[in-house]
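Shift notes (night). Ran DUF4079 domain-containing protein while the centrifuge was going.
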Amino acid sequence: MELDDFFALIHPAIAVVIVFPLIGIVTHRAWQVRQRRLQLANGEKSKIPPIVGSEHVEIGNWLSIGVVGAAILGMAYPIFSRFLKNDTFAKDPLRAFWVTAMFMITTATFTFLFKVKIKTWRNIFAAATAIGLLLIGAQPEVFRRDNEWFFSHYYYGVAAAILMIFSVAITQEIYRDKQNRWRYIHIILNCLALLLFVGQGMTGARDLLSIPYSWQKEHLRQCDSKTRTCPPKAITSFVGDR
Ligand code: HEM
Ligand code: HEM
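Came back to this:
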């Protein structure tokens, strides 16, 4: 396997090995938190230990780091591999510098989100991280699938990442709000996030299927995706190379 292909696999591998198991754990804890709260509210005794709440939040923080990290990595690979291929650092140094700075600033604001306790600063760092992701995603190197945005790995991924950032930002509010409004907002938004994660699994697997090994690209470039045909020579040389 070429080095280029290896780098292309880092993002999907991290998503499958780290992010998706975390989604399972966080969702299970979320279910337990809810069951326990409803049982206690009904005056029943609960067999679920009280620690599930803090475990949900602790692993939830890791999940949001995983999802935002996966989104950053998912965009870093196409952007920097194309920058190197097209010599963008020499031809368009201003944009190359600005995009590199955006990666660093977004990572920094996301780190600060976990460090600060004051609500205003949490909101500022959460908003800055979300804007950073959108600015990085606006680069022409990122394949956004704008004409099929409703089944786009990019739009689902960035939306899920922003929902995770929002969950971290409102953690204190969920605990403080005695009327549980923030709790219900959190549940509704994160049920949507769960659907987006299912979509990420499907669209990610689809996109992997459509990206060939680097040695195949030359041959497959001759194929026409509209008519779904390849010139006979391309097919022969493709099969012959395997
Ligand atoms: C897959 C993603 C997630 C889902 C489906 C989810 C869902 C839930 C559910 C159902 C509850 C219980 C609500 C109730 O008491 O009825 C809950 C509680 C909570 N969640 Fe999440 N959540 C997710 C991720 C996160 C993340 C990333 C954070 C932030 C770190 C977070 C922070 C909280 C907090 C602070 C509570 C209250 C816990 C308590 O009462 O002790 N959640 N969540
Ligand atoms: C929560 C999990 C995930 C998030 C937040 C996420 C996010 C992203 C983002 C924002 C991009 C850049 C936009 C794009 O090229 O579409 C991307 C690219 C990609 N992702 Fe994911 N992704 C996740 C899971 C997965 C999974 C499970 C797979 C495959 C099994 C996958 C495979 C890919 C592939 C193949 C690319 C294209 C990279 C390229 O353009 O060369 N992703 N991802």
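The chain has a mean pLDDT of 94. Residues 3-41 form the longest helix (39 residues).
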